[in-house]
């Protein structure tokens, strides 16, 4: 049993990490589970042991993002140019109307197809979309979450958003 004075001293010395005189929930949990802030930061940073398929899927999504940035930059340039008076403005409006059939749009579609394939491979290999109850082991315990679960979910989510905005439209 601790006295009030020793408890306050321990809270001040061990729990209050940033020395502001208050104990946040995070500081309390670090104290409760005997973890250091360095452990928390190291664990929350990216993992160095990312599987090859997940790395390929991330690179494919980065390629999609690069293509989208190039497309959006060109679209912005043409929109700004379409406000010009005369022939220059009309030329930019015409090019803006043709932008969805341009090589930039085709490059986005190709990158989206490749990214979708890479994400699908990573999802099939490392889970995602599989219920925990179907993965229970013989003891009836659910498996531990791996470090790739969140990454796969975010890759699928990002791919869905990109496909919804830039994917092929049915004619």
Describe this structure in words.
With 171 residues, the protein is mostly helical. 65% of the residues lie in helices and 0% in strands. The protein contains seven helices and no strands. The protein starts with a helix and ends in a 5-residue tail after the last helix.
Q: What's this entry about, in short?
A:
By secondary structure, the protein is mainly alpha-helical. The protein has helices at 4-15, 25-32, 37-44, 52-81, 86-97, 103-126, 149-166.
How are the secondary structure elements laid out?
Layout: H1 4-15, H2 25-32, H3 37-44, H4 52-81, H5 86-97, H6 103-126, H7 149-166
Unreliable segments (pLDDT under 50, ≥5 consecutive)?
130-136
Radius of gyration: 26 Å
Please state the average pLDDT score: 82
What is the count of helical runs? 7
Please indicate the percent range of residues in DSSP E strands (runs of 2 or more): under 5%
**Biggest beta sheet attributes:** none
What letter string, H or E per element, gives the SSE order?
HHHHHHH
Span of the ends, CA to CA: 75 Å
Please count the beta strands (DSSP E, at least 2 residues each): 0
- Which descriptor suits the 3D outline? elongated
Q: What structural class do helix, strand and pairing data support?
A: mainly alpha
Helical proportion, percent range: 55-70%
């Amino acid at each position: 049993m601790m006295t009030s004075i020793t408890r306050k001293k321990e809270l001040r010395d061990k729990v209050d990490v940033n020395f502001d005189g208050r104990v946040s929930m995070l500081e309390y949990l670090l104290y409760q589970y005997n973890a250091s802030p360095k452990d928390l930061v190291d664990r929350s940073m990216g993992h160095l042991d990312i599987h090859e398929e997940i790395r390929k899927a991330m690179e494919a999504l980065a390629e999609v993002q690069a293509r989208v940035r190039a497309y959006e930059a060109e679209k912005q340039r043409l929109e700004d140019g379409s406000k010009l008076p005369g022939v220059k403005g009309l030329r930019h409006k015409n090019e803006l109307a043709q932008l969805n059939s341009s090589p930039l749009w085709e490059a986005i579609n190709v990158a989206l197809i490749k990214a979708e394939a890479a994400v699908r491979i990573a999802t099939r290999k490392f889970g995602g979309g599989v219920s925990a109850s179907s993965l229970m082991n013989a003891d009836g315990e659910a498996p531990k979450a791996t470090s790739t679960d969140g990454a796969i979910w975010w890759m699928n989510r990002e791919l869905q958003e990109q496909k919804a905005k830039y994917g092929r439209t049915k004619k």
